[in-house]
Amino acid sequence: MRAILPLPVYTIGPLNFLTEQLVSEGDLAGIRSSLWREDQSCLEWLQGREPRSVVYVNYGSVTTMSKQELVEFAWGLANCGYDFLWIVRNDLVKGDAAVLPPKFLEATKGRCLLVSWCEQEAVMRHEVVGAFLTHCGWNSMMEGLSAGVPMLCWPFFAEQQTNSRYACVEWGVGMEVGDDVRREVVEARIREVMGDGEVGKEMRQRAMEWKEVASRSTVQPGGRSLANLETLLKDVLKWPPTTNN
């Protein structure tokens, strides 16, 4: 991009690490990036569970699915044997309310939590979360990489297919569910990512490597992203301001 654009290009990110640092320092206290009201009960529910024992499921703020896809995902999660936290927005199903089968709720009682939204970054940083089932939106991808969490990918539109390919093929931290959602495939993918086989171990190792790269670039002294942010402020905003009038 630097070679083809007449203006400077500043590579900055993951932004969630940068904003997290500013919040911790008090510069952006109380600032949240979420578009929805967050349910704080999620973090309480996670407490006391075994490390890397929970699947976190969130399809983002705008992605929708059919009733059939909702049911297939539901039974795939129910049959995988792991606890799971599932973000089910009211408008998740196209043209209808997101209603899950009563038998599903009975089968998963005590090992699942269904909420409309949560503080995603805090959830994925929790030690009990072992995998992230995602629509592969860019913000979710960055938050997943920053937390070092392997991903199960179900891209929907826009940049999500590209993000999914990078996660699964280039970065080695993801595995695709497939366009034709089937409960047995969802179950198998979860077991493979969460299990102690070679695939799961390698994905977790790669995820932790990317977490370290993200941290080194953004929050550690001399990190490339942090340095580029400082350069942007100096070049574009003329920061810090001069003391002269």
From TrEMBL:
Coiled coil: none annotated. Pfam families: UDPGT (PF00201). PROSITE patterns: UDPGT. InterPro entries: UDP_glucos_trans (IPR002213), UDP_glycos_trans_CS (IPR035595). Gene3D superfamilies: Glycogen Phosphorylase B. Keywords: Glycosyltransferase, Transferase. One of its GO terms (molecular function) is quercetin 3-O-glucosyltransferase activity. PANTHER family: GLUCOSYL/GLUCURONOSYL TRANSFERASES (PTHR11926), UDP-GLYCOSYLTRANSFERASES DOMAIN-CONTAINING PROTEIN (PTHR11926:SF893). Belongs to the UDP-glycosyltransferase family. This is Glycosyltransferase. It comes from Triticum turgidum subsp. durum. The lineage of its organism: Eukaryota, Viridiplantae, Streptophyta, Embryophyta, Tracheophyta.
